[in-house]
Design goal:
This protein is an all-alpha fold and about 800 residues long. Among the domains are: about 1-145, no CATH class; about 695-805, no CATH class. Helix content is about 65%, strand content about 0%. It contains 43 helices and two strands. Strand 1 (about 200-205) and strand 2 form a beta hairpin. Helix 11 packs parallel to helix 14 (about 225-240), helix 33 packs antiparallel against helix 34 (about 600-615) and helix 42 (about 745-760) packs antiparallel against helix 43. The longest helix is centred in the last third of the chain and has 35 residues, at about 770-800.
Length: about 800
Amino acid sequence: MDIDARLKALVRLAQSKSDPARAALEKAFDQVSKTLETESEYELLTQSLDILDVIGYRFSERAVGIIDAFIRSIEARKLRYTQAEEVLSREIERYNNAQTLVAKAIEVAVHLRYYETQPVLRILLRASDHPSERIRKKVFEGFGAVASYDLDVFYGSDRRGGIGAAPQQQIIDTLETQSDLELKTHYAATLKLLGGLLSPTIEGASWSSTAVTLSRGATPALPLVSEIRKRSVRLLRRLYALATANKEKLDAISVLNGATRTDRHAAIDDKAGEMIVRDATDVLAFYAELVPTEDLQIVQKIEHNSYWIFVHAHREEIRAAALIVEKALAAHSEYQIYRILVGFEGVFSDWATLQNADAQWDVKEKERREKASEFARSMTPESYPEWRARILVYAKTESQDLATFPVFYHFLDELAVAHPELALRLVTDDTASLSRFLIPMLHGLWDGPCRSATRVLIERWVNEARAGEEHHLFASTKLFLSTKDLDLDLLRSLLERAVEIKDVPTIRQITAVAIVRYPTAGALAPLLKQLLFRALDVLAQERDASWIYEAWFRGEARQLFAELENEETDHVLRNLRVLPKIEYHAEEVLALIAERAPESVIEFFCERINREPEEEKGIRAAEFEAVPFEFHKLQEPLSRVPNAAVQIVLAQFRSDESLFAFRGARFLHNVFPKFSGEFEAELLQLIRQGGETNYKFVVGILRSYHGEPFIHRLCKEIVKAIPDDSSLRTEVLIALETTGMVSGAFGFSEAYERKRQEVLDWLTDPDERVQEFAKWYIANLERMRDGERKRAEEDIALRKFRYGEE
């Protein structure tokens, strides 16, 4: 019995409470237990986990113990594969390995969460810091499933006899007993679990043979749920006190905020209202305690959260608690300055009168910039020490996106303009601390009276730059995106130093400067292009073409690439060949080049196709794609040269026929998706020239058109040209019967019948070979049509049986 049939039988058997069924399940369970404990064959272990998944709930305590022992031991075993897989063992091991089995075992354990909540939770906690990102992801998905409230589990599938919040109670019981060290070790995991316990919504899903129905409602304010939420807030406060990094604190605050939210899609009853009031006021009181002493970035998040709690409050008690936080913020004088210069999440009006956050943003952004300029201009040598300390503190604000600091950037730029000597002193003395914010100050200094001293400083940075150590080549390069004047000698020095120490981000930034400054470079334009080409060639050697993502949308890039001569485009194309995939960013640039040199772009794709087998042997095999699924801009310029397109791809085909349908044929399909008359004429000419290679080339192309009727003429011509015993007859049949996307249970059956109707006139074709081929093809279609209909009917009947609908 194959594994699918066995699983189906065990599913039905597990639903029976009879003694014979119990005995059969015991036997299967013991066999699985032994296999998971001792075996090393990957396929056998996978099948055993599948069996445990369908019968494990009948032996839940033992099943969880088996899973736990399996996860602890499997990574120490040397896995074996089937004989067929051994041939490709290196490739197979990339996808089917011990970590894959651990992830699958975790998934099986999570399915037992309502039977053995605490043991499953312990398994997940132990695996939460596993080195494999894939396993950690699976674990955190498990935390979400374990902690969330499920309608059918809470109330029961018949809305009677559910287990209520018992699993959530076991979770909070387990977490509260952990030591401070354990909580620190499982910090992120604990936050994920507590977030689920504080969820304001309860969801469920019901299945039938034809549909899935999703349901949701407000988490009921039952006494046990209310107690769990209260204990969760208390544990979060304890967890916050254990945090040492701002990110940990911000994560805890984010989860705490969940205790203040209501389900906006459901009405709030009195009990739920009281529960939310208690939790929200508790959280807001905690926020108010933190405001005077916490890091300014934490204070900013507290302000942001508290304001929105105030806005969405459904009871006056919550609004009053939020206003206490606002009062504490107003008393924090240093935060008022921080909010102006850095406060990307700050609130800049009185909460009680603020009506529209969007309107406030536009107005306050202008006011913030004006105030920042005032701060910069008012600085004096006497106040410099105080401002220096403040700037260094503000510069520690953590963010993944420097675009969140526009006002702080403006302030530093204005400081360099208003007080260049102080700014130069700041940049010189505190370079490392201000490394993320050097650009605005360098920009202001370069366009001011301290340019010479700034150039000397940058030259020193260039000379001091070492591979593997922090340096400032990137900031020194980026400042030239918008300075009044260019210093090509300095740019060239930055580039060569970056090349020497393999500083790819700086080399990439050189390309951005060259592109942006090209339209206004005047006589310097040729020299800028030389810099650009040098940078692109080096990046190609480093297999990096990510500059395209920052350049493709720029008007300056459009002008530059549209004006390149044919030999100059080689630098661009050579670089873009290393892209893992040609997405719309690169296609925008390629389309500009194709307007002047379409043949070069066609050859570019053929060279990528030639490289694909090499990529499959390397580490980028999974992500490399020589030809995109479809073109958005390249179709128009490339389709103007059908002869060149066909001949260049044909030359590539002659050198390597492997996987042509997925490479070269796909490329031509992208260029000629509507199968133009000119393209058809080129292919027809190849057929008439004759030769096995030409026939195989044309058939490979036709297979990419999903059997559309417009390929019938060429298919007929090939059938007429090839011998009756040629293997290409089968290839033509495949090209004709390919369906593409279908829908509905009977989609394939209907598609095959439609194809049969489309070729009935072939039966009366003057050529006997066409007639014979048509009879064979139609018989094949009828067989597949009837087989697909039968399969669909059986599948429908089986689904109805599973869901008790028949």
